[in-house]
Write a structure and sequence with these properties.
Two copies of one chain form a homodimer. Chain A is mainly α. Chain A folds into two domains: 1-63, Multidrug-efflux Transporter Regulator, Chain: A, Domain 2 (Orthogonal Bundle); 77-134. In chain A, 63% of the residues lie in helices and 4% in strands. At the A-B interface, α3, α4 and α5 of A face α3, α4 and α5 of B. The structure holds a DNA duplex.
Chain lengths: 134, 134
DNA sequence: TCTTGTGTTAAACCGTACTTTAAGTCTTAC
DNA sequence: GTAAGACTTAAAGTACGGTTTAACACAAGA
């Protein structure tokens, strides 16, 4: 009946899939202002774990630690910053869409190279191809 | 009738969209072994420009400078390394596909957040939402 | 001739995101 | 009581991908 479990730093690290020292680093950088400290030790609540998941999501899309901190700071300021946070999410969505488009462009390049190698490799071995270029 | 233009380092930098110092760095790291030096100055051929484009493509998909150098080294060894290079391209394609899938996952997360903010912002201002979390 | 512009090098520096180290605290088990 | 194991801190170290700096070379134009 009690979902409100709490976690040690290494449990939290295991759940999120980062190292404990990374979590300490995030804390130092002000990204975990809600993590309580009981007798000097960090205690991660479910809400802290949820914050970490958001952090990982933003990080995965290329947002810097500093920008994530600013976003989290806004969140701590309450409803007055809702529009601002909404705008950040919309902007980050656009960034991700551009990243995906860019990767697709590069994937097409790789496909061309694949076809190139495939065609050379299929036309028998030892035809003399003047190598030396990429 | 002469396509075989040659370029100075700053022309090459302009064409590729990187800085001249980045090109010098690539050269230092062994990524531009074919760039000639005429009276101490680098001269970029069309083939060098083509190599730079491949370099940028691989870099854009997350391949490290070192791994790109290894790939280029293989290319300079000629046809004997065709299969190896083909394998590298296939592997890189998989890496890119995983990156795209990962970004799409994170995009879905951002979409959820967008909808969340949208719903709060639409249900009028000043309802008291207990902010403070991300 | 002298300045301007473009190139060169080696070596030092930079930002980002951590990781590692050293020294110490606290709890629990034996 | 003492050893182990998990936690703490500040500070230094690391990897990557460049950038910046300082000092110098060379060619063209006024």
């Amino acid at each position: 009946m009690n979902d409100k479990k709490e976690y040690t730093i290494s449990e939290a690290a295991g759940i999120i899939g980062v190292s404990a020292s990374a979590l300490r680093y995030y804390d130092r950088e002000g990204l975990l202002p809600n993590v309580r400290k009981v007798s000097g030790k960090r205690v991660f609540s479910e809400a802290d774990i949820a914050s970490l998941r958001v952090l990982e999501c933003l990080k995965a899309t290329g947002m810097s630690i500093r920008d994530i901190r600013e976003y989290f700071d806004l969140a701590r300021q309450g409803d007055a910053t809702l529009e601002e946070r909404y705008a950040i999410i919309l902007r980050q969505k656009e960034i991700v869409n551009r990243q995906i488009a860019f990767l697709n462009d590069n994937l097409r390049e790789l496909n061309r190279k694949e076809q190139y190698y495939k065609s050379i490799l299929s036309t028998a071995a030892g035809s003399g191809h003047e190598g030396g270029r990429n």
